[in-house]
């Protein structure tokens, strides 16, 4: 089946919402070719690394499942993503059996940890979820206010073991795991979502700390998310999520053949003074397949801009089609 640039432009976007009240925006988006949604959290919940008391009181499994079912009545094969991190943000708190704590995870053997992750993922699957934006594979050996309270250990071997077990368990339940944030951000002076900041770590240290990404690939990870800030050792001008050099390294040096997901494209360290449309064009041209953006009424104009860029040659029609096809393959399994 052939798809138009307008349909492909919608297929490559992963719009994020902090509420379940999304039908007004999402139904037209899905009807025109969209096939993904991130059911996210508020900024306050993100900062707290916990869901609010109001959300926990009002959001039941039945409510969550019913809203996803409404979206799937429009697009049966729908990627429904959530942040469900081991030791970090868990969007499905109160809705599914919890993941083990970090202390528990480190104490469990690989098979037991994978099984605990499978149980959580199986319950999420029952709700209609098909993708976890997790595990976090970054190894923090410096400062990093962006990932504080979300990472799993301070040395690569320990993180790699947990990443491998998480990926194995989650994906055995039919959920796509998305290991993030390639190539790993060990030391950042600020939060890329708030300020334009770059990773200044030497290449050798970055590659040393990238062991968890290699472990994820060995475990059969289906998707990897690139980071939101420039990595000076590889490309000082473009954030990892808009960098051809970083994505080529992931494909060629790490041998990853799955879905490349961008981090939030509206982060200051990713946009670097550009518009969201220009940033999205750069991301797909660099090699990203699924672009994470804030959801809202602006989606239609953004999609139209991406389609127009493909028609004018600013994005290769082949690259756009390739990215959209990869997303649709993942959605078909959801």
Automatic annotation (TrEMBL):
Source organism's superkingdom?
A: Bacteria
Q: State if Protein biosynthesis is listed as a keyword.
A: no
Q: Which reaction does it catalyse?
A: Hydrolysis of terminal non-reducing N-acetyl-D-hexosamine residues in N-acetyl-beta-D-hexosaminides
List the keywords (alphabetical).
Answer: Glycosidase, Hydrolase
Keyword Hydrolase in annotation: yes
What EC number(s) does its UniProt record assign? 3.2.1.52
Q: What is the top EC class of this enzyme, as a single word? A: hydrolase
Which Pfam family, just one, is annotated for this protein? Glyco_hydro_3
* Residues of the Glycoside hydrolase family 3 N-terminal domain: 75-327
Q: Which GO terms describe its molecular function?
A: hydrolase activity
Similarity comment text for this entry: Belongs to the glycosyl hydrolase 3 family.
Name of the featured protein:
beta-N-acetylhexosaminidase
Q: What is the lineage of its organism?
A: Bacteria, Pseudomonadati, Pseudomonadota, Alphaproteobacteria, Hyphomicrobiales
